[in-house]
Design goal:
Blueprint lengths: L1 E9 L2 E6 L10 E2 L2 E3 L5 H13 L3 E6 L3 E6 L2 E12 L11 E6 L13 H11 L1
Parallel strand pairs: 1-7
Antiparallel strand pairs: 1-2, 1-4, 2-3, 2-8, 5-7, 6-7
Bound molecules: 8-OXO-guanosine-5'-triphosphate (8GT).
Family: Belongs to the Nudix hydrolase family.
Protein name: 8-oxo-dGTP diphosphatase
GO molecular function: 8-oxo-7,8-dihydrodeoxyguanosine triphosphate pyrophosphatase activity; 8-oxo-7,8-dihydroguanosine triphosphate pyrophosphatase activity; 8-oxo-dGDP phosphatase activity; 8-oxo-GDP phosphatase activity; metal ion binding
């Protein structure tokens, strides 16, 4: 299963989202995004961000993807993109919490397993 996610940068901080109790991987932190349907990766990302946060984004670049096997039937390829905001009124539509964190604080969150290599790559590349 391909999943896109957005590393949204604004004023030197990165938007981190906590999954709600109703989602799978409850309370884990992630980058907002979701499963790719019949669409391009960028279309998927822009659609998911609109659905989850109510904002438009600009997609800057694709970063290396990471495959993680949560179980036999749940194997995901997480495909991250660096993004910025085009509109700024964020609404919390699906997640339980949002945090804007500076890059040096990203490691303090309890990330979904698939995100850990993505966070590490981002820190290594952009700090
Ligand atoms: N959006 C997102 N999903 C992630 C990340 N890391 C990670 O393991 N996942 C997993 O990838 C899958 C994405 O599905 P989702 O539930 O967020 O996406 P969706 O909105 O398309 O699904 P749905 O409409 O079926 O609920 C979930 O199983 C989620 O646990 C991440 O950083 N962002």
């Amino acid at each position: 299963m391909k999943v896109t996610c957005a590393i949204i940068e604004n004023n030197g901080k990165i938007l981190c989202a906590q999954r709600s109790d109703k989602m799978d991987l409850p309370k884990k932190w992630e980058f907002p995004g979701g499963k790719v349907k019949n669409e391009t990766l960028e279309e998927c990302l822009r659609r998911e961000i609109k659905e989850e946060l109510g904002v438009e984004i600009q997609v800057l670049e694709q970063l290396p993807s990471n495959q993680h096997n949560y179980s036999k039937s749940k194997i995901i390829e997480l495909i991250p993109f660096r993004c910025t905001l085009q509109t700024f009124e964020i609404v919390l539509l699906e997640h339980s919490k949002l945090e804007w964190l500076p890059i040096e604080k990203l490691k303090t969150l309890d990330w979904a397993k698939a995100d850990i290599p993505v966070v590490n790559y981002y820190i290594k590349t952009y700090k």
